[in-house]
# Entry
Amino acid sequence: MKLEKKHGWFLVGVAVWNFLTWAMFAKNLYEAHSSGEDRPQGYWIAHSVLIVVNLGLGVVFARLGARALRSR
# Structure
């Protein structure tokens, strides 16, 4: 599949959006846990896994976008 520059900008934008939203969610989740919010252990684990997976996807999108932007 050939990616063009317009795809690159889109992917970089999605990556930035992913980083910002999931980093904010991670901060809020950490603050909730630190304040002693009463939730089942599975809640904290599931949301932590979601954060890690989506930040990983952000890295993939950023790398694909950067590759598309460097292409001719």
Q: What stands out?
A: Helices lie at 5-34, 41-70. The CA atoms of residues 10 and 26 lie 24 Å apart. The first helix runs from residue 5 to 34. The chain has a mean pLDDT of 95.
